[in-house]
Amino acid sequence: MTGFDETTAHILVVDDDTRIRALLQKYLADNGYRTSVAENAAEARKKMDALSYDLLVLDIMMPGISGLEFTEKLRRDNDRVPILLLTARAEVEQRIEGLASGADDYLAKPFDPQELLLRVQNILRRSVSENQALEPPEEACFGPFVFRYERGELTRDGMRITLTTREAELMRRLVAAPGSIVTREALAEGETISERAIDVQINRLRRKIENDPRDPIYLQTVRGAGYVLRLD
Question: Quick one: which H or E segment has residue 72?
């Protein structure tokens, strides 16, 4: 997937294993995330001083400063960046130690890439709910479009586009998490509706906002995860 911008979640993978860094960087990028890498905690700290990241995927067993030590230091410094710890040790004691250090989640190696992706999505979703303002934006702009949250009103170059009640609600849920993946489950929250029905409704909505619904610019699919709305 290409076309990342500053609204796309940015993940920093920190692992001394070159192969794992490369695999995770490609897999996360293919699934809709900006991804940077560092081979140790010292390099990660330098990158974090220059940029803000939405999530760290952090190996525990690294030379120099371990992942646990780095997590503890970040928390002591009141850095609340979400952290997913990776380790080859799967014992309960190590999992407890990792979570006690301040990590948000813990995944033992070897792991299934889909499980990693789901854990990443869950952490980012929790982070968005905790850190974003409770009040949604009054207006969301993307290209020639403006969506007014309270009214559920969509305009293009000032001309109103008719939305069904369901389409307006989909827009509200997407706008409430700008640039972040919204799962089909979240889009259907509180309603008895299948994931397939969500896909159909998204396709109808695309026909109203995309020049080419088969190659969307604004309302994009993240394979195996859900949808993301790219705002200006």
Answer: helix 67-76
**Tokens describing residue 144:** 């020639």
Q: How many domains does the chain have?
A: 2
Cβ atoms 59, 87 nearer than 8 A: yes
For residue 63, what are the contacts with CB-CB under 8 A and spacing of at least 6?
A: 16, 40
| Euclidean distance between CA atoms 166 and 54, whole angstroms | 30
Query: Is residue 5 in a domain?
Result: no
Range of the domain at 82: 10-131
> Which of 150-154, 165-169, 191-195, 204-208 is the least confident region?
191-195
| Distance from C-alpha of 230 to C-alpha of 38, rounded to nearest angstrom | 27
Token pair in block for residue 147:
């969506």
The HSE-up count of residue 155 (CA atoms within 13 Å, CB side) is 9
User: Full-prediction pTM beyond 0.85?
Assistant: no
